[in-house]
Amino acid sequence: MNTPVVAGLDGSAASPRCVAWAVTEASLRGRPLELVHASMMLYRDGSLSEAAYEGLEEERTRLLTEAKAYALGLQPGLEVRIRLLAQEPGRALVFESEHAELVVVGTSGLENFGGPLLGSVALRLVAGARCPVLAITDGAPDADTAPAEVVVGVAERDRESRAIGWAFEEASLRGAHLSAIHALGGEFGAGREKVDEDTSLAEALAGWRSKYPDVRVSRAIVDQHPARALVAASDQAALVVVGATHRHGVTELALGSVGHALLHQALSAVVIVPEA
């Protein structure tokens, strides 16, 4: 099944940037693009007249149609579909993530149509997503000027980490350099400790380097809090990739302080990858 790249649009000024990033990802991955707009205002609960509902649907459909035309202007020949949903945006995008390759969303800005802050939608999506989420932060570069650099934060040097694998694949597709960063969050102990940490990081990357031999990789063990280290590294990157795990006994992901810091402060796009 050729699962799509999904872009959640709210009609704000940030939507064209979201579309452009989604077009890039769909093109790199050879996937169709689905442009989705969801709003509870479209839900027919009797609070508006039928004529009012039809007017809203026409307005939102026009939003999606214009976004589709913009996407095709960027990448003629790309398969682009549009979907209008009468649902709460965060919940709708979580559902869409179950059959998506990637979901692309902005992280801030007030919806033009009386909806919630998109930031809250992005956070809900990230918490519940079943596929990687690419969040376009306020500081992220435009899709066509993004540096050829991908950064991955390695918290637990697991050779099967989905975040590491996703970062390698993205770097390969982009022809980009990959920087793998493990931040200790405090002072190093003996010099041997740093050597051991570097050896463990190298082992975590080894299998992926064999799978993606075209990717140029550098690794760094840094004496900083992970959030600070990754925000700093985002200044020269197209994307920063981090993993998130499910809380014990619940379906939501535990984003943690690192993910929150990146969504609010990163100068690149941010990718949150569910680890399990």
Automatic annotation (TrEMBL):
Transmembrane segments: none annotated. Coiled coil: none annotated. It holds the Pfam family Usp. Residues 1-136, 150-274 form the UspA domain. Belongs to the universal stress protein A family. This is Universal stress protein. It comes from Actinomadura miaoliensis. The lineage of its organism: Bacteria, Bacillati, Actinomycetota, Actinomycetes, Streptosporangiales.
